[in-house]
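User: Could you check the structure of this?
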Amino acid sequence: MSEEQKIVAVFTDGGLVGHNPSTKGGTWAWCAVTPEGEHVREVSAYLLPKTSTCPGNPRVGSDVVTNNDVEFFAAMRALESMAVGWSGALATDSRITIERLKKCREGQMPTAFRADWFSRAECAFKRLGTVNLIHLAGHPTQKDLERGYKENSDGTTTRVNRHQTWCDSRCRELAEQFEARVNNFFEYVKQGALV
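Assistant: Sure, the predicted structure tokens are below.
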């Protein structure tokens, strides 16, 4: 059985370097999971504003990156990475991303949305099988993970999953690495090492 045939779900998340919106950039991550709960693929990287001087990594067409940008980008990249005809679940803690994905799947441009990302997501859905979109609660506690859901303030519950927490942790790790590199650079400059 190929790796693609083993994948039953992808979990996605996005985060920012600094505040929302961020002039520094954002982070995104996704992982592909087998029925046994094993990660068979983990992908993560940065999404940078067009003004960034950092080399590499994809960019948004604006001076800032928003939380909604990175959340959608992670989901879009995960869908684009699945094999033709793949069917399974895509889980995210972003309700906005789910609504935008539903629109893209129906061939409708989401309101105030990037045309290039709409086209990419629409194309991904067209070449895939059935994709079940699942909303998970973000930032669950260990107790939430043990019982499988998070209690909401209105008395309802929302599912949680440890794979979602991996994506969230990876995004935070990348953001911390980014900040550390920037801080180290400025400390280096302050010490007069660069003239």
